[in-house]
Write a structure and sequence with these properties.
With 212 residues, the protein is an all-alpha fold. It has a single domain, classed as Ammonium transporter AmtB like domains (Ammonium transporter fold), CATH 1.10.3430.10. It is 73% helix and 0% strand. It is built from 8 helices and no strands. Helix 1 packs parallel to helix 3 and helix 5 packs antiparallel against helix 6. The protein is globular and about 55 Å long. 33% of the residues are buried.
């Protein structure tokens, strides 16, 4: 479904992009070289992901879109977060490009094939982007790959990252399932088809938005 207001979507993506510098660079808790590098790789990866998504969409659909670029921005921000402070510019470039392309296909082709309900593409962008970034951190944090970590054995670190991702996926799947079941019993998870067709702004809040 097309966004209610594409201009607002792009403004929101821009605000996220700028705010994410504080998120990643601020994690250093100091104005030092680590914070500066985290800020740099955040910029590089995000820009690369936006371009990666744009070109993937261009090839797949015949033309790019501003909404796709905004989605690529979010994918890049998510993917670089696990790696900020430990990877260098080259690693950030690769992570960003990979995130843009992979998240595009997961948010479009994979979602259609599996048929799951994800109107905001939280799994295709945030889930896949986070997993990809966490895994590639194990590769590009190594000094031999231009990183600033203490990784000496890339394969071993990649296995550690994969185990961390696996445990996180299992934990969040179980806890989320329990939470959703409780919510389903208490208040329900979905509105009826008529309210969904009308739109939740109107059916739930009795408000209607207007394009300016």
């Amino acid at each position: 479904m097309a966004p209610h207001n594409l201009g607002y979507t792009l403004i929101g993506a821009a605000m996220l992009w700028v705010g994410w510098f504080g998120f990643n660079a601020g994690s250093a808790a100091a104005a030092n070289g680590t914070a500066g590098m985290a800020m740099l790789v955040t910029q590089i990866a995000t820009a690369a992901a936006a371009l990666g998504w744009m070109f993937a969409e261009w090839i797949a659909h015949g033309k790019p879109s501003a909404l796709g670029i905004a989605s690529g921005v979010v994918a890049g921000l998510v993917a670089i977060t696990p790696a900020a402070g430990t990877v260098g510019p080259v690693g950030a470039l690769v992570i960003g490009l990979a995130a843009g392309v992979v998240c595009f296909f997961c948010a479009t082709t994979l979602k259609r094939k599996l048929g799951y309900d994800d109107s905001l593409d939280a799994f295709g962008v945030h889930g896949i982007g986070g997993i990809l970034g966490a895994l590639l951190t194990g590769v590009f944090a190594a000094p031999s790959m231009g990183g600033f970590g203490t990784v000496t054995d890339v394969a071993a670190q990649l296995w550690v990252q994969a185990k961390g991702v696996g445990f996180t996926v299992i934990y969040t799947a179980i806890v989320t399932f329990v939470i959703l079941k409780v919510l389903d019993v208490v208040m329900g998870l979905r509105v009826n088809e008529e309210d969904e067709s009308v739109g939740l702004d109107l059916s739930e809040h009795n408000e209607r938005g207007y394009n300016l």
